[in-house]
Structures are given as C-alpha cells and as structure tokens.
Amino acid sequence: MKTRIRTTAAGIALTLASTLGVVAATPATAADPVGFASVTSCADPQLDPFDNWTGHTLGAYKDTNWVPQGMTYDASGDYLYVSMYHRDALEVPRVVVYKRSTSAWVKTIELSGVPKTGHTGGLTIGRGNLYVADSVGGARIYRIPIDRIRSVPAGTRKPVSYAARYTLNSLTRASYVDYDGGNLFVGDFYNNVMRRYPTSSAGSVTLTPNASYGTPTIVQGVQVTSGHFVFSRSWGRDNLSKVTTQVRSTGARSSHNTLPMMEGIVWAPSSAGSSVNRLYSVFESTSKEYADSNCRTHAIWSASSSYIL
What we know:
This protein has helices spanning 146-150, 305-308; strands at residues 2-4, 54-57, 66-74, 79-86, 94-99, 105-112, 122-126, 129-134, 140-145, 157-161, 164-167, 176-180, 183-188, 193-198, 211-214, 219-224, 228-233, 241-247, 253-258, 262-269, 276-283, 299-304. With 309 residues, it is mostly beta strands. Strand 17 (228-233) and strand 18 (241-247) form a beta hairpin.
C-alpha cells in the first residue's frame, strides 16, 4: 500500500507505541546529536517535512528481531537490497531483497562468513559485486560477486559466501559504504570521517585511501554523486532523523527532518528503467526491538531528488 505519512487512514504502521522501559539501543559513546530533537508521535509538527515522502509497507520482516541497516539498488530485477542483523546475534546477518515498486519480499540472502555479531551497516553495488560494510574485527568490506546474489531463486532463503574480505586500517569502523566512479566511499559513524578507496576493474579494493572527507555527525548512510554527498543521520528511537546534503565543492550543507531511526539510503528510479530520481530509505523502527518508539514505520520510503537536493 502506498501512502503519505500524514494520512492516518492508510495501512502503513506508523504507530504510537506504549513505553516498555527498554533502554535505547544506540551506543553511549557516539557524537552528541545537536539539533536532533525528540518527537512525541509521528504527528509531531517537526515531522511536517516528511509529507514529501511516500512509502510502501514491507512485505516481510516487520516486527521481528531483525533490524534493517544498509540499502542498495539492483537495476537487474528492479530490486532494493536491505541488510539486516539479528538483535540477539542468533543468526548471521542477511540481505533481504524487495521489489522496489511495492516493497514486496523477493528472497533472503544469508551472508555466510560474516560474524553473527556484525551489523552489516552498509551495502552498495559496483564492478559486478555487492559490497557489505561491517565493523567486527575492524573496518571491513566484504565483496560478493553479484551473480551469486542474483542466482538465488525468488521465494527462497539461501546462504551466499563472499569472494574477498578487506580490512581498512585507515578507519576504525566501516559504518556505511557507497560506490561511485570506480571508488568505494566508506565512512565511520563515530569519528565523522569518510574515505575513498579505489577498486580494480574486477572489484578488488585498494586498502590505501586516495581521499578523505569530513562528515556531519551520526551518519548512518551515504549516497555519492558528482556534486553532492547525501547523508542519512539518526540517533535514538524518539529523536528526529535528518537527510543532510553536502556540496562537494564548497562543503555547504542543508538538511531535512525525517522519521526517527533512519538508516540506509539509495538513489533509485521512480519506475523500472526510468532515470534515477528518488532517494529510498529504511528505518530501524521496523524491528520489534524498537516497539517502544513514539514514532514507528514498517515501510520503505522515498522522496524526489528535486526535494532532497
């Protein structure tokens, strides 16, 4: 079902949750989220800018122990990939594949070899590979040939192994990742830095970065264009999230408020085969681990590039 956030009669679960006394899952050592005010409900006037977004309810993994993290787009099939970790570390992290146009579940990929305690905070596709960012054992990037993902039949859940793992010693953590122009852009949530790593024609990652960028605080995801960095930023289950656009040439920034617990973002088309003109996002509040949030969603949301940029 497609809707806008302020339409209360729609079927997307944007709920006011009862307080369960659960301690916030965000780390205590992260940067102070100045300007990320709390909200009392999804109807809070501070969220009025989110009227510019539309969404579809997830076809699977609503109100489970699985927590959405990274996101990328595969034009082959018109799919959105969402990485998830299990809050209790009972299973290896996974990539859940959804149809972009409806958020219908397509299949599930178990990330064989990635630690169960990993959060798999970032996903991106480039050079014929799916790259997964994780921070268990250091700032690590896992490279999986994309054909291994695409060959998993629809309607199934299958393990897929990675082809290579890269430890990026120039970063403390690999919190998020994007691919652009032959390079991986990998960022650290805690240290407000993002570095650029060249890749070979086959997709191997050079371990020494060739550029470094200062970022805003509490960045959860990034999308890179020739002229802009677009960051998703969030902290805490009842605090506003923000999409912050940074002009690469000047560093100038502008921001839009969004729902709490925003995570991965990706540019993708509004229809299969059309120009890439919408920013899609997932939110941690999909998981029942955040059932006590004042403002939850069970949807993948998107907004036009003209609004974001």
